[in-house]
């Protein structure tokens, strides 16, 4: 009798976990780093931006899946963004000394490099901030 109850318990547990997979697939967090050319800077004018934060599509129900967003600032070109999964309705802000100096709205398709044509004037520390309507938030600093 106890063996039968254990089998039923594990069967129900397995069914519950399998039915929860769609929830896992719709929830993710993002932390990412990019280096030009597969991990190596190809020019002295490229600056790696380390992004930290979370992008959440639905309320969290379990452990989030990683979804890195890569970013690199290239002098006189702008910031290149690349997401491993599609991120629609992303607000891109660049701040200097706490003030927004650039703002745009973009859709980040999966595995497509998107150029944000921001030109940072003057040397200093800048902040790249990415947000979405679902309270997703990524932020990283870079020095020009």
TrEMBL record:
Pfam families: DUF3244. It comes from the Bacteria. Residues 1-25 form the signal peptide. Keywords: Signal. This is DUF3244 domain-containing protein. The lineage of its organism: Bacteria, Pseudomonadati, Bacteroidota, Bacteroidia, Bacteroidales.
